[in-house]
Amino acid sequence: MLQGRGVSPFANLRLVRADATPAPGPGRATRHRRPAAWLLAGVALGALLWASASPPGALRAIPAGERAALLSRTVDELRRSCADGRPQALADHCRELATFASRFDECGGPCAELVRRELAPRPTR
Predict the structure, then answer these.
(1) What domain of life (predicted)?
(2) pLDDT at position 44
(3) 3-class secondary structure, 71
(4) Which of 9, 22, 28, 104 is deepest in the core (most CB within 10 A)?
(5) Could you tell me the residue range of the domain that residue 87 belongs to?
């Protein structure tokens, strides 16, 4: 008893079973997603660098499913990052993406239009 007030010194403590596991915190899922996202971005960047430094026929050596996925990610990034009104700081990156996409035999229709738009000379005035 605390100084005769009838309150136990252990009143604020709670019992925890030995087999109880703590509930996952809100940050636990985020901690696992971030490394996966960075890994995926690194793989895509590595493939982009490898393909841009390799001979033109090297893209044909990639299995069709992987080639289609790589082209799809590249075109998605072109649409997302390189639309009208983008920051000027992305100009070189967008040109590289468009050049890379143009190396795919499968780049036709909307993909070819994105490439043409990005690689077309821009007026300076």
Answers:
(1) Bacteria
(2) 77
(3) helix
(4) 104
(5) 63-125
